[in-house]
């Protein structure tokens, strides 16, 4: 038994990022054609497209502002024209900003997190779910965070955006479930990426000591969870928030 995404097309937003690029490669390795979304890093997107095509899959780079519905609709049309119907949507993109206290965090930072977490999720649903309904199924996958359960100091804007995203995804799961569309969230912990490997920063004794598995997860761990949720093996899983963080947070019943 294995993950087989042959005949599926996946869209990964923020695919040029540290985690997104591994998700795109992993979905392609499982057999999916991949739409590589980027905002400004077009060169990295084209590099990733060439890599995926070298794996024998189709791929296309698509630019969009994920906070704007018109831009996402244009992206949908471009992807559909090149790769056909999108079966799997992975909402991975998020706006980066400097974390600080509630009293010092700017209003613009809260707005950026609302737009890139909540509104991106809404826009992607409006753009891609109707065709999934027509096709009789699909996968909506949001990338959340362990921070949404931790609520540590300086995380307020990020946590507010991700907890808002959580609400959208749980309700969407109920609304589109009758059409055999699953809606789930993957919540990474503090993850080792290519940047860490380059900089030699894979270990963090303070963080690692708190994790039951006593280590940080990797970008591949996150991508593996995404591929599983995208596959037929997860066809009866929906409405979930799945931490991929070595047990650092544990949702309770």
Which characteristics define this entry?
seven-stranded parallel sheet, NAD(P)-bd_dom_sf, 9 helices, SDR_fam, alpha/beta, oxidoreductase, 7 strands, 45% helix, 253 residues, SDR family oxidoreductase, globular, Rossmann fold
Low-confidence stretches are none
Instruction: Determine Rg (CA atoms, Å).
Output: 17 Å
CATH class: Alpha Beta
CATH topology: Rossmann fold
Instruction: Report the β-strand fraction as a percent range.
Output: 5-15%
Biggest sheet statistics? 7 strands, parallel
Whole-number tally of structural domains: 1
Q: Which strands sit side by side, in order, in the main sheet?
A: 3-2-1-4-5-6-7
Supply the CATH architecture.
Answer: 3-Layer(aba) Sandwich
- Mean pLDDT across all amino acids: 97
Number of helices: 9
The count of strands amounts to 7
Structural class, by secondary structure, is alpha/beta
CATH superfamily: NAD(P)-binding Rossmann-like Domain
Helix content: 40-55%
Q: How far apart lie the N and C ends?
A: 30 Å
Order of helices and strands: EHEHEHEHEHHEHHHE
What does this entry look like structurally?
Belongs to the short-chain dehydrogenases/reductases (SDR) family. This is SDR family oxidoreductase. The chain has 253 residues and is of the alpha/beta class. The chain has one domain (9-242): Rossmann fold, CATH 3.40.50. The chain is 45% helix and 15% strand. It contains nine helices and seven strands. It has helices spanning 20-29, 42-54, 69-83, 107-135, 147-150, 156-176, 194-199, 205-208, 219-230, and strands spanning 9-12, 33-38, 59-63, 88-91, 138-143, 181-188, 241-244. Strands 3-2-1-4-5-6-7 form a seven-stranded parallel sheet, sandwiched between helices. The relative contact order is 0.15. The mean pLDDT is 97.
């Amino acid at each position: 038994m294995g993950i087989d995404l042959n005949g599926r097309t996946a869209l990964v937003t923020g695919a040029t990022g540290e985690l997104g690029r591994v998700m795109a490669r992993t979905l392609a390795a499982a057999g999916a054609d991949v739409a590589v979304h980027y905002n400004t890093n077009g060169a990295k997107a084209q590099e990733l497209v060439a890599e995926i095509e070298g794996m024998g899959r189709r791929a296309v780079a698509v630019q969009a502002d994920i906070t704007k519905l018109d831009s996402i609709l244009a992206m949908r049309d471009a992807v559909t024209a090149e790769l056909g119907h999108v079966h799997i949507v992975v909402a991975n993109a998020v706006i980066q900003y400097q974390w600080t206290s509630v009293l010092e965090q700017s209003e613009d930072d809260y707005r950026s997190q609302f737009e890139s977490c909540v509104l991106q999720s809404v826009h992607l649903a409006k753009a891609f779910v109707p065709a999934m309904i027509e096709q009789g199924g699909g996968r909506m996958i949001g990338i959340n965070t362990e921070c949404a359960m931790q609520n540590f100091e300086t995380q307020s804007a990020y946590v507010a955006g991700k907890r808002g995203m959580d609400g959208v995804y749980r309700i969407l799961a109920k609304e589109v479930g009758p059409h055999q569309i699953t809606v789930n969230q993957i919540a990474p912990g503090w993850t080792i990426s290519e940047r860490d490997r380059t900089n030699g920063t894979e270990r963090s004794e303070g963080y690692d000591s708190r994790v039951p598995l006593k280590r940080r997860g990797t970008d591949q761990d996150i991508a593996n969870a995404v591929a599983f949720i995208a596959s037929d093996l997860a066809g009866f899983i929906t409405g979930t928030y799945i931490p991929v963080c070595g047990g650092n947070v544990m949702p309770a019943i």
